[in-house]
Amino acid sequence: MGKLDGQSALVSGAASGIGLAIATLFLEQGARVIAADINAPALDRAVADLGRLGEVHGVVGDVRSMADAGTMVEAAVEQFGGLDVLVCNAAITSVMPIEQLDESEWDAVLATNVKGMFTLVKQAVPHMIARGGGKIITLGSEMGIVAVPESPAYNASKGAVIMFTKSIALDLIRHNIRVNSLCPGITRTPLLQAEMDNSLDPAATAVLQGAWAPIKRIADAREIAQGALFLASDDSSFAVGSCLVLDGGYTAQ
User: Fold this and answer.
1) Which of 80, 154, 164, 250 is catalytic?
2) N or C: fewer beta carbons within 10 Å in the chain?
3) pLDDT tens figures, 97-119
4) Does some domain include residue 198?
5) How far apart are the first and last CA of the chain?
6) 115 beta partners
7) Known catalytic residue: 154?
């Protein structure tokens, strides 16, 4: 028996990294999954691989668009008859000090990381209410709890995600919709690899990444996915508006 047997889930940003790990684990635990992403070729590859685990359908779209978010949610309703679990994972990063940060990057980060959650939640909630409840998981970050230098746009976006989560959690629990935030620390993903590769000194950056958290290693994306499974399952039945922090001790310092 899987912890998500018979449930339907939508995971945004599912073509790689944490989103792909979540989609994988959800399928292994019996869920049927809509995997959504803006990167069509990567999504096609991911869905082809995920298909061996269970029923999965890919939807290409941009979470910054209310219409695209609606298409993602409607895919779950059409394919599975409804939506039980929404994972708002799609995000982009930004490492840029304020004196170099331009308006276009600020707008892109906030639109993707914050508006991109609003659009999905806005589209999903009516269907969850009609279904009698559901679970919504937003992807925050350790950087929404404590700030790090040279990342004002990303820090701001993830702080906003956490407060957005708490706010809608209070509003939606009366409809039996539990909303919580999963806040990962440093995790091995293509984004992290790109950050290292594009740095001035990739070797030094790799050393810094490995020593970032007190646990002295980088998380595997599947470790973070286990947190999403907890929040999506009945194991977290008393969690409402919570931030599940999986950061190897970083915010405990």
Assistant:
1) 154
2) N
3) 999 999 999 999 999 999 999 99
4) no
5) 39
6) none
7) yes
Instruction: Report the CATH number at residue 237.
Output: 3.40.50.720
- For 133-151, what is each residue's pLDDT tens digit? 999 999 999 999 999 999 9
> Whole-prediction pTM value?
0.96
211 phi, psi to nearest 5 deg: -100, 10
The tokens describing 238, both together, are 């008393």
* DSSP of the chain: --TTTT-EEEEESTTSHHHHHHHHHHHHTT-EEEEEES-HHHHHHHHHHHTTTS-EEEEE--TT-HHHHHHHHHHHHHHHSS-SEEEE---------TTT--HHHHHHHHIIIIIHHHHHHHHHHHHHHHHT-EEEEEE--GGGTS--TT-HHHHHHHHHHHHHHHHHHHHHGGGTEEEEEEEE-SB-SHHHHHHHHTSS-HHHHHHHHHTSSTT-SPBPHHHHHHHHHHHHSGGGTT-SS-EEEESTTGGG-
Does residue 83 sit within a domain? yes
